[in-house]
Structure formats: C-alpha cells, structure tokens
Amino acid sequence: MKKRLRYYLLSxxxxxxxxxxxxxLGKSYRYKIQGFKAGMIYxxxxxxxxPLIFPFxxxxxxxxxxxxxxxxxxxxxxxxxxxxxxxxxxxxxPSEVAEIKGKILSGYGIVFALxxxxxxxxxxxxxxxxxxxxxxxxxxxVKVNVDKKWKFPVWDGFIIPYPFSSIKISFLEKPFFN
Length: 178
Fold this sequence. Notes:
178 residues, alpha/beta, 7-stranded mixed beta sheet, two-stranded antiparallel ribbon, 5 helices, 37% helix, globular
C-alpha cells in the first residue's frame, strides 16, 4: 500500500515540479545554437538532456523514452513542452523499430540518448548508428557546453545549468565508434 501511494504521489508531483523548474530556469538561460537542422537523427548524452528541453520545445521532435517509472515522468514533462514521445523497450521490439523508421522516413527528427537509458556513461550504443546507416541520414551529435552548472553524482553525470547561464548547443555530423 505504501509503495503504491508513493508511486502515485511521485508520478503526480515530480512532473509538475520538473515543469515549473524547467520553465523558470529555461527562461533565464542565454542560448547559442549552431548547426541545427530539422528532421534529422540527433544523438545526445543522457546527462546533457536538461538544457536541451526548453530551446527545442514545440518543434515536432520525437524522443525515444524507455518504458518504466522514470520514463513515465520524463514523458509527461516532454509532452508538456511539445515533444512527441515514442516509448521503447530494451531490447527494442520489431514494432518499435518500424515506428521509429516510419517517423524518420516521414521527415521527423528523432532523439536518441546515445548512452541511455542506463549507461555506461559516454558509451555509444548501436541504436542511433543503426538507424542512421539504414535510413541513410546523418546522425547529428548534440554537444552542450554550459558555463556554470550543477553536476549530480549519478551514473550519467546529469547537469542542470545555474540560472542565467550561457548555454552553447552545437550539432555536429560525425561518425561514432566505441
């Protein structure tokens, strides 16, 4: 009973608090964005996703999110900010592969957390490269540079920029190898 209550409280309150914090902080940031192209395959590091939400809200981008409690919270937050969501399993099922391919071929941008959902940190998994090669569309690496930030002691080194920080976001076309 206590677990169920905790689950419902967190699943209700965490997205609301996240949306408020993201909106307030997002308004305070100074963004410099270089090399963005719509309708591409984007690869980012799991720990650098926070500063990317606010400037790319409402652009029709699809984000791949794992099924599970953490994914539920993230999906609600991203939907609020105008992102489209594709929930995926690990490993990805053929029906999920078909949905992702369909979105890419229809010209939508797709976001992959290259090292997500559980790491290891900064280790590129094969999903984004697979789709990039199969569809013959380049994979754009999203690089985030923040002048001042909190860095959390978690597996992905999750960052939240301080209020009024300068954030440089670069989209680089490059191959990945491990």
